[in-house]
Amino acid sequence: MKQINEDIRQNKFRQVYLLYGEERYLRRQYREKLRKALCEGCDTMNIHSFEGKDISVGEIIDLAETLPFFGDRRVIFITGSGLFKSGGEKMAEYLASPSETTFFIFLENEVDKRSKLYKTVQTKGYASEFTVQDENTLKRWIAGILAREGKRITENTVQLILSRTGTDMENIQMELEKLICYCMDRDMVTSEDVEAVCTTRITNHIFDMISAISSGRQKQALDLYYELLALKEPPMRILFLIARQCNMLLQTKELKKKGYDNRTIGSKIGVAPFIAGKYLSQAAHFKTSQLRNAVVKCVEAEESVKTGKMNDIMSVEILILSVLQSGKE
């Protein structure tokens, strides 16, 4: 990220940039930064956007070889192409020696760093990974956004926001906009405001549901399940998220046994270190055998629904009641 800022500051650009990683908000922010810097004064005929896995690499290369229309550069944005995982060889060959007047900005969720295209970008341009931000960074960012709007907030209230929103910065931003409007006439954002305005993500409902089950609070677990149904969440999606949560807890538990710290565990399972810490706390309530059994039972429940042996709503109810039991090792 620092390198992109420096390129913009010096007005010296590489011909290809790759912006990738889980954090969509930051990817889009830096795409816009590059757009403003590279496309300033450009005719719209020199700015092009391609999206999806069905794009034609040949068409893009033909366009890249076309001189800009009464301008200094042609800028091509390519989003979600999947070329950095497979099928990017032709693009890699072209980018090894592209037209000097054409600039590329790729945006991808995932990349294969072993691919020829990724290695070409590293050699000829710049690849920047946008990962999930750590807790302290998110807290400072939230406080900064609110401060610019003349709002103050305590650390405990910021923590409450994160517990509701998760670590996705795009989601956090939307919730902060709601909070700012809700607290229009006040300069202090309180926990009551967060409780009143911020939407709890479905993954947080699942986390709370598993916590309730691990503590033997089956009624609360069922109440949370019924709340999700009332919110029109499909039972099979809830089942998938329960299975995913149990699998994450199982991975977390096994990685901890191997001696990994929270940061390393978070990196391996794809979450922020402070989220990994929450998983570790929750996993402590289960035996490894229970979590393995829970994952198997989730698969069996899905199979029962697909084969018509049981309806979807009842299959999740039975899973909650009979499979995930409390108990510590």
Instruction: State the end-to-end distance.
Output: 44 Å
Instruction: Please tell me the total number of domains.
Output: 3
What is the CATH topology assignment of the largest domain? Answer: Rossmann fold
Measured by DSSP, the beta-strand proportion falls in: 5-15%
Compute the average pLDDT: 89
- Spatial strand order of the main sheet: 2-3-4-1-5
- SSE string, helix = H, strand = E? HEHEHEHEHEHEHHEHHHHHHHH
For the record, what is the CATH homologous superfamily label of the largest domain?
A: P-loop containing nucleotide triphosphate hydrolases
Shape: globular
Can you walk through the features of this model?
With 329 residues, the protein is an alpha/beta fold. The chain folds into 3 domains: 128 residues, Rossmann fold; 63 residues, Helicase, Ruva Protein, domain 3; 121 residues, Zinc Finger, Delta Prime, domain 3 (Up-down Bundle). It is 58% helix and 9% strand. The protein has 16 helices and 7 strands. The protein has a 5-stranded parallel sheet, sandwiched between helices. It has a two-stranded parallel ribbon with strand order 6-7. Helix 4 links the parallel strand 3 and strand 4. Helix 6 packs across helix 7. The longest helix has 23 residues. It is globular. The chain starts with a helix and ends in a 7-residue tail after the last helix. It comes from Acetatifactor muris. Belongs to the DNA polymerase HolA subunit family. This is DNA polymerase III subunit delta. One of its GO terms (biological process) is DNA-templated DNA replication. It catalyses: DNA(n) + a 2'-deoxyribonucleoside 5'-triphosphate = DNA(n+1) + diphosphate.
